[in-house]
Specification:
Order of helices and strands: HHHHH
Strand content: under 5%
Structural class: mainly alpha
Largest sheet: none
Number of strands: 0
Distance between the termini: 51 Å
Number of helices: 5
Length: 212
């Protein structure tokens, strides 16, 4: 608190400000991790399951960021290379324009040759610009596709984790309802085997998306 502000009970604010700052920063961070239900109550009265889910989302985001960092750096390097080539072409174009201005002072008998050179330069400039635009468009499409793949992979990962958490809760609920009947126990085991198979299939599909 500023020293020039007269507060009746400053100790109250000193205890509240760290909590408020934590809430503000977490509220900004968690939506990036695809967690949109964070509330002030999660700071003031945290619950074990919700806190574990928040921390899991943050760790997943950090791991995912490191995993995709190489792809991002590669795209950034390609973009930088394209910009450097563009600058080189611009420099060559300016040098050609300077040379062209000098050629305009040549004698009349060389005007036809100068005109042909001018046309060649313009044609080359047009081809270079078309090639640059084509490569730039292709690069933007690759970047957009990568962003779309990242977003889709993150969405499927979160859906898978929510499903696993839900199944775990259902498992706990079912355990309390299971009786000692051999038939009911057998049915319960079959149900859990099917659930595990579905989760494994979802994980394989998720891994194949990341591999691309």
């Amino acid at each position: 608190m500023p020293v020039n502000v007269d507060i009746m009970y400053p100790q109250i604010f000193e205890g509240f400000l760290p909590v408020c700052n934590l809430y503000i920063h977490m509220e900004r961070l968690l939506p990036v991790c695809r967690i949109n239900d964070f509330q002030i109550a999660d700071v003031l009265n945290p619950k074990t399951k919700r806190t574990a889910r928040f921390l899991s989302g943050i760790l997943n985001f950090v791991n995912f960021r490191e995993f995709r960092r190489e792809v991002y750096l590669e795209l950034q390097l390609n973009y930088k290379s394209a910009m450097e080539k563009h600058q080189q072409l611009e420099t060559a174009n300016r040098e050609a324009a300077v040379k062209l201005e000098k050629l305009n002072t040549v004698p009349v008998e060389h005007q036809a040759e100068v005109k042909q050179l001018t046309d060649n330069i313009r044609e080359l400039e047009q081809l270079l610009r078309q090639d640059y635009r084509r490569k730039q468009t292709a690069l933007q499409e690759v970047i957009s596709q990568k962003k779309s793949d990242i977003a889709e992979s993150t969405r499927k990962l979160n859906e898978l984790k929510v499903t696993m958490a839900t199944l775990k809760e259902e498992q706990e609920q079912l355990k309390s309802k299971i009786v000692e009947s051999p038939e009911e126990l057998k049915n319960y085991k079959e149900l859990m085997k099917e659930t595990v198979k579905k989760l494994k299939k979802s994980k394989v599909r998720f891994s194949s998306v990341h591999a691309r």
